[in-house]
């Protein structure tokens, strides 16, 4: 009879541990998924912002005898623009290149219409993502226009509005990730509290026979550490499988910066271990401080 009771308690304990591990793994998996979405949304947003092209135009009215001097002046201007903190890359477009591009856009093959290269030389400027929002781009355009040789600067205002909306979307995604992190902490905490609650009589019995609080807490903390690690490993295995599916089957352009993923892995392990241990200590301490009669109403 005693053996059957012992086996029953072992099965119940095993079942309880499996339930807690699965709960932790599911919560951490969803947390990691939100982290992946945030990382890649930020990277894709930066990629789109880098497509915002600012066009800086050179003066097209000059004498043919000054062409050599003008070419040098334009080259110096391009170098000066490239050195600006807000500029990611520059592309110089000569008058001839501008004419060729215009012919392609208009579908015109006749050289007569463009024989004098009627379009001015210019520089296509791609800005760094952090300088594309409406609060900063005005100062950037003024800075580019102040470069010697530049007579006009233009950018796509419609694209500018889209990029401003991207910033708002990213803020909402970040806020949702923070909210989900809080929910993850609450859910893991509840799973651990239920597990400790099932052992409240054991905790109190050990205390009544003279066991010190540290002695009682130690095995619970070790168990919480193992459960947190197992939950984090299962969550990461599931995320790895999902990652492999998207990168090999769907060919989605994910972020290639491994440092960001390392931080995400550390976050998952950190949340899984820290919350399980902290919740275990808090829940166990509660029963250590309670009276015997309170155990029946907890």
Describe the structure.
This protein has two domains: 2-47 and 164-296, no CATH class; 53-155, 2-Layer Sandwich (Alpha-Beta Plaits), CATH 3.30.70.3040. 69% of the residues lie in helices and 8% in strands. The protein contains eight helices and four strands. Helix 1 (2-49) runs antiparallel to helix 5. The longest helix is centred in the first third of the chain and has 48 residues, at 2-49. The model has no long low-confidence stretch (mean pLDDT 76).
Report a brief summary of the structure.
The chain has helices at residues 2-49, 67-82, 95-106, 137-145, 157-197, 200-208, 213-250, 258-289, and strands at residues 53-58, 87-93, 122-127, 150-155. The protein is an alpha+beta fold and 298 residues long. It has a 4-stranded antiparallel beta sheet.
Chart the SSEs and their pairings.
Elements: H1 2-49, E1 53-58, H2 67-82, E2 87-93, H3 95-106, E3 122-127, H4 137-145, E4 150-155, H5 157-197, H6 200-208, H7 213-250, H8 258-289
Antiparallel strand pairs: 1-3, 1-4, 2-3
């Amino acid at each position: 009879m005693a053996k059957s009771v012992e086996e029953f308690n072992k099965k119940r304990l095993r079942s309880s541990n499996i339930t807690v591990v699965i709960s932790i793994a599911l919560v951490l998996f969803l947390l990691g998924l939100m982290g992946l979405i945030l990382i890649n949304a930020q990277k894709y947003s930066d990629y789109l912002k880098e497509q915002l092209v600012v066009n800086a135009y050179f003066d097209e009215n000059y004498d043919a005898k000054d062409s050599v001097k003008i070419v040098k002046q334009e080259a110096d201007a391009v170098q000066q623009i490239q050195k600006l903190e807000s500029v990611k890359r520059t592309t110089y477009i000569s008058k001839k290149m501008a004419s060729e591009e215009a012919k392609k856009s208009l579908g015109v093959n006749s050289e007569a219409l463009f024989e004098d290269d009627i379009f001015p030389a210019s520089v296509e400027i791609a800005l760094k993502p952090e300088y594309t929002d409406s609060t900063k781009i005005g100062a950037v355009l003024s800075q580019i226009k102040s470069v010697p040789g530049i007579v006009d600067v233009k950018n796509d205002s419609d694209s500018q509005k889209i990029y401003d909306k991207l910033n708002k979307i990213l803020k909402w995604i970040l806020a949702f990730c923070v909210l989900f992190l809080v929910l993850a902490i609450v859910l893991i905490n509840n799973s651990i509290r239920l597990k400790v609650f099932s052992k409240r009589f054991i905790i109190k019995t050990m205390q009544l026979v003279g066991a010190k609080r540290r002695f009682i807490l130690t095995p619970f903390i070790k168990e919480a550490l193992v459960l947190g690690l197992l939950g984090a490993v299962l969550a990461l295995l599931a995320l790895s499988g999902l990652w492999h599916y998207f990168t090999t089957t769907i060919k989605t352009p994910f972020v290639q910066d491994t440092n960001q993923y390392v931080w995400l892995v550390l976050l998952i392990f950190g949340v899984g271990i820290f919350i399980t241990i902290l919740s275990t200590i808090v829940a166990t301490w509660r029963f250590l401080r309670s009276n015997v009669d309170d155990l029946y109403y907890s």
